[in-house]
Amino acid sequence: MQAHTNALDFFNVIKRLTDDISPEEADDRYREFLTATREYFFLNLCRRKGVVPEFGMEAASLATLCPACPQIGINMDPDWGSREVDKRFLDALFHAVDGNFTQNQKDKKMDADDFPLTLGAAYFANESDVSLFMEGLPPYKPEHSTCNKFGAMGFGVHWGNVSGTLGLSCARHTFVLPGGGVDLQKGERFANVDFCMLSGLQRWMDLPVHVSAYDINCQYRINFAERMKTFRGLTTEFKSIRRKFFPWTIAGVGKFHLYAHIFACRYKYSFNFLPGVGMTDGECVERIWSALNGLGLRTREMASGHRHDTINYFYDDMNVRKTQTLARYLAGKYQEAHKMYSKAVMTLEKLEDDISEGILGSGKLSQWRAEEAEWLTKVVNQETHKTLDNPYEPKKETRLTQKQALAEIGAAMLSSSVVSAGLLGVLEEGIGLQEARSTMLLELDVGANSDVSMKTLQDLRSNWERDVESWRGRDAIYLTPLVQEAVKALDERSRTTALQSGAERGSLEAFTNGAADPDSSDDEKANRPTSEPASGSKRKRGTSGRKPEKARPAMASKLLAMRIDLPSSLHPIIRKHPAMKAAVDMEMGLREHQATDALDDLRTQLITSAGMRQKKQEVSGQIRTTRAAGAIIRKNKAVQAAAASYRRARSALLALGMSNEDEEFRELKKEDVKAFTVLAEEQMLGDSKKFPSWIWENLEFIDARGEGTVKQYFEEAVRVHWFRCNALKTRWSEQSELLPEEMRRTVRFFEYLKAEWRNKAEAEDARDMPGNAAYARRQVHDYERFLDGCRRAFEDVPGVDVDVLIASPTNMYDVE
Where are the annotated segments for Disordered (predicted)? Predict the structure, then answer.
């Protein structure tokens, strides 16, 4: 079964083993083998559940139930009926439905009288009731869609007598639910899904809340109430359906399938935002299909009854294997939830502290919390969806235009012509010259793709060289004497050590330590010009009005040849001398300002880049699209320039004595240079286990924006960031509450079945059936082992004491 070996191949192997000379002469018992195999599967199911094999057994009597899901009268909290409204999600049934078009059946001649031995007692809905229901349906036609045209709604290509099957599972533990299987004709007709839900959820209709996951819930739920009203008006009696009213249901779309929907669906049916769903992803059925698909090659050849019996046995085997590992699974999920919830709380607290202490103020938080509470009330009500706003994206009226976003990039500023007085002025001007050189090197590194012409770069270089020469005159007055004093105070050995770091080229450059020089390491490594293309590789055509590309590396070499040495560039022996203390302290302060400004610029560019990407999606036409793409390229260049500026400033700070573990100026890694999620289309699977980069722990950069559209956009982006962070924290909080409750239900479930099998053993003894009694006691022992596994797995989980739960008499109230 698990190896997906078909019966014919297996039987042929037996024939060869029987007669390896002339296998064809062996008696043909293939038909008998098929019959025996089918009967064995059925009898094994009956034995596993302790029921007498007969026709027309009770619903779910052959199914293995999920121990962690709520089972009324078996494993629920004794006070579940009186829980507060905001805690009712702890007793909700999380279920998912989906169609599998691999599990089809060929349209060929077969036994029309074949019926399943497991009729209505396992994982398929009662086949007799399904046939009766289908007879009264009108001719099939695809449903109208207000979203995309999904293949599941009949817009795809389907074939066979049966085009596929619907399956119903618990959405948190991947157990197949009993009575939910329904065969499909063409697409996932909503009538088929209705019967699947009505039949498969019968035993859970008395729960206060259901959470439903379905790939096309946005369409299925539109007329759901009307269809249920029509169903209740049918005069046909269905043996398997007694309850026809569903409890309050929160409907969502699986996280993987959500991206196939239009934007209007993504926030209304997202399991990232819906209340009370924890970290459910809604894709459990897909995992079941991945294991079941291999079986489809065999079942599509079978008659209808045989096909259902085989799939039922496979489902039950899956559920049994899930039961065996459930305790370890829940324990692992709890450890993950505990860790992620702590991180989510810490991230949100830092964000809220920054918002409260900054220009936005605590009043904004109160306003946002009220908006969120109102939105959560509306999103679970289908009737309010048409007018429901999306709080997890910036509002349209605050989005930046392309012109506004480009204005935030600005031109790279060279050093000011106004010279500050004294040593501080020399240091400040030197840093500005280093940054101006880095800007030019960045443009040179881009090569022919730069939007700055070679003529402009040559002019900038000429002006920069004049400024450097002018700066060196002031440097000789204020900084060089301090260096000379520090050098004179060194003994011969120390002076030799300092001079070994570089060749003497005038004043300061004799004492430059290239390895520790942030100017050298960043400019020469991070901004190294692109090398010439290899021989034989394609070259870009020359651009009119520009110098040949070979001029760019030559210019870069000339720029790097002019050294601008500051205290951070000197050898540590020089830098640590008392004569240099004032200069080192001054540069330290200037570099801190540079690093802060670079981080603020980086945050600004990252946030506005999201608006530009969205603007590109809204424009049409080649000219506008090309213009928008060019703006995005320039924006990305500004992002990289800001990141490089911060890294240079931090390198200088480290050289000046800052600790590498400094909390304010941390290492900026490549993965840190990213914005928090602002747009829905940028949200990716797995984001619920990721947290914003450390650069977003400080939002003071908004205060410096003044007033205007840009500032309003920044504030709106922070609002979206808060909504998403708060939703993430809430989902992990719910997950941390759901898992211990599921653990307690699992313990009660095992104890309940242990007591049930013990009672069966005693009853079999009274009937003088020692074999049956022995088998029942073996089941008692098995469930005792399950409970031992729970003790080991749940020992560190607060509020889950296996022995206390077993000793509670409330767990035994339904076992006689």
Answer: 498-553
